[in-house]
Amino acid sequence: MADVILAVDRLMKSFGGLRATNDLSLEVLRGECHAIIGPNGAGKTTFISQLQGMLAPDAGTITLNGRDITGEPAHRRARLGIARSFQITSLVPDFSVLDHAALAVQARLGHSFRFWKNARRDPALVAPAREAVETVGLASRENTLARDLSHGEARQLELAIAIAQQPKLLLLDEPMAGMGRKDGVAMTELLARLKRDYSIILIEHDMQAVFSLADRISVLVAGHIIKTGAPEVIRTDPDVRAAYLGH
Amino acid sequence: MAEPATNLSRLRDVVPTLLILAALAATPMVALAIGDPFIVKVATRVVIFAIAAVALNFVVGYGGLVSLCHAGFFGIGGYVVGILAWHDFNAEPLWFMSGTSDLAISLPAAILLSAMIATIVGAISLRTSGPYFLMITLAFNQMFYYGAIALQKYGGDDGLQIMSTITLGPLDVSNRYRFFYLALAVLALTLLLVGRFVDSRFGMVLRASSKNETRVIAVGVDPWLYRLAAFVVSAVLTAVAGALLAAGQQFISPVDMGWDRSGDLVVMAVLGGVGVVWGPAIGAAAFVVLELVLSSWTTHWQFVFGLLIVLIVVSLRGGLADLAQTLFARRSGEAKHG
């Protein structure tokens, strides 16, 4: 058996009558960049939310590194190594770039019931945080507050936070959403560098980016994965073309 | 490097804090100079409410939790001192222990009791958020309020007069000036503690949780326990303020713990500025002095008071602290140009 980092088995999630996740099974291999594509409303973000733990599935199991995490709350999954960058940027407006990364570092280092020492002057937090910020190319903006960042920079910060968590698995929910072409190209380059170090689940609408980054691609339609395969296989698959690529 | 930014923010926190404490410390000398001891009484009241408002702001300004039960904790602190002193004066044991008028014992007792109650109240209230949190803490405040009224043995509605002499260890603190400096020391300690807390790892989690809980959970922290801890710390410091009020005026009554008093504390915090640790201390001073001055002018003082508060809050979004900082920034700017 190949080295599976994440196994999803027959996951189900309904909202009222809508089956947002319908018998979804998926395996992500360690070290791979696994893209999930699918038309709008296919249930991609719903799926990611269940992996992260913000949403509880109705049925099915999620296994991380051989451990069943289906019942674990989101914060504990983060400690177990799942980091998510949000489709809609989720930041703290009055925290600086560095503060965000440092928060992720301190969460990783254990409990935060430390009341006395100034967190912003704690090298144990600042040094790794700065490293994450530099990795995404925001070093020159490290003291800028989140509310003053451009859209592209905020997307980069989302990534920096995820990296600062030193995750085993990165869930990237449309990291290029709303980016211009120039920022998008820079982000693709950044993700290409990151995929060397992390196992990644990537949701992205930019097909050029998906096909250049992904090792494997799964196609999600109406909450169900209809196909998983290498990019060249997916590109030419008739079912996929019918369901999605061709329209 | 982040150093210049942190140094600047440090300056912004430390300088005003020291100025406030120095100004307060000078009031007894002013009182002596112009021969008006009433000033010390007012200053003591300012200091005590400043402690409570700074403590409350730990959860309001930094935790995003508007609590309306802090007057309850204030009253609990006051009643612990009052009841222990009552048992001391009447030489009647309270369960297994004897009463005491020694703050060295009754203050820790107030801290312990308020911490226990705050843990329970917080654990229940923090299951909710926003307006629901507001309502449930309000309900708890009313429980405490009517609980105090029900204490018939200790004066009920009429409140509890402290007949014994309050001491701190061997020190007699019934002296007005001595008591003032005791309260001021507690305020200084409160400002120091809250100031350290908000910049610590704990504070970063608390602040981030108030603005974006999803983000905090996503990096692996469950904010609940941190909020509870902040709530308890805040309640305990408020109870200490209440204990000091009872000790200082030799009297505590249910009026000191009504829900409107909880609202007053929130107003002090907002008026002074919830964004800085020392803001609510200014707010408390403005509140107490305005209340005093306006009520001596007109019986409809609350109308004028309300107008003033609306005016200040609308024009200065960061409260009075904003005004102070703007003036400070302009002065230092001028200095640079000159």
CATH topology of chain B: ABC transporter involved in vitamin B12 uptake, BtuC
The number of helical segments of chain A is: 9
| CATH hierarchy: architecture of chain A | 3-Layer(aba) Sandwich
CATH architecture type of chain B:
Orthogonal Bundle
Largest sheet of chain B: 2 strands, antiparallel
Number of helices of chain B: 13
Oligomer: heterodimer
Secondary-structure element series of chain A: EEEHEEHEHHHEHEHEEHH
Tally of extended strands of chain B?
Answer: 4
Key traits:
heterodimer, A: alpha/beta, Rossmann fold, 6-stranded mixed beta sheet, 4-stranded antiparallel beta sheet, globular, B: mainly alpha, ABC transporter involved in vitamin B12 uptake, BtuC, two-stranded antiparallel ribbon, 13 helices
Structure overview:
The complex is a heterodimer of chains A (247) and B (338). The model of chain A has no long low-confidence stretch (mean pLDDT 93). The two termini of chain A are 36 Å apart. Chain A has nine helices and ten strands. Chain A is an alpha/beta fold. Chain A has a single domain (4-245), classed as P-loop containing nucleotide triphosphate hydrolases (Rossmann fold), CATH 3.40.50.300. In chain A, a hairpin with a 2-residue loop joins strand 4 (59-64) and strand 5. In chain A, the strands form two sheets. Chain A has a six-stranded mixed beta sheet with strand order 6-7-8-3-9-10, with helices on both faces. In chain A, strands 2-1-4-5 form a four-stranded antiparallel beta sheet, with helices on one face. Chain B has one domain: ABC transporter involved in vitamin B12 uptake, BtuC (Orthogonal Bundle). In chain B, helix 3 packs antiparallel against helix 4, helix 3 packs across helix 9 and helix 4 (103-125) runs antiparallel to helix 9 (223-249). In chain B, the strands form two sheets. In chain B, strands 1-4 form a two-stranded antiparallel ribbon. Chain B has 13 helices and four strands.
